[in-house]
Amino acid sequence: MKCENCGFENKDTAKFCTKCGAVLETPKKPDDGTKSNSNTKYIIIALAIVIVVLVGCVGYFAGTMNLGDGSAQDNSAQSTSSSQDSSNSASESQSSSSESTSSGGSKSWESIGSYSGSGSGSQTVKVPAGQIMVKLSAYPIKNYATNHLYVSGPGGSGGVDWGSYSDVETRSDSFSFTSSSSGTYTIDYYETVSWEVEFYRYQ
Q: How far apart are CA 121 and CA 201, in angstroms?
């Protein structure tokens, strides 16, 4: 071992210089880096494990949140779809109802007056504007050539009668018309056992 003070070469096991008595320092062994490399490996492995665990946790929670959001979105979409379907159904129903009304599907013939009697005579009836239908029938006393039941007015006329050789039986007739204003109709009957006239309006 070389003394750093005087340069004298001493034995490797000497602690003091034989020449000058200076303390000899044992040279340090070079660090081969084995321990440091070993520690580094352990640190890297630990970090890798931590990273894997963190990535797994993040992936799990992200998947759970996506599923929750997806369900919420599906429910929201279904709710919106149901609302739209309900709205569409309501609109279609209203449209159908409107079309039905405009096309007359909801209308029907409703009685606006019924008249009956017997014998001979006449009477007048006030009929409102609109689409009107008249139904009439009568039964004669016997088969005279003048037996009849007639209904006439501004919109049209109809009736039944019997000749001298006609069967004594009930006869019926009907007619319809459309008028923009009300009118007066005359019911004329002669030699009848019974007669009946009914007025209907399409509404």
A: 26
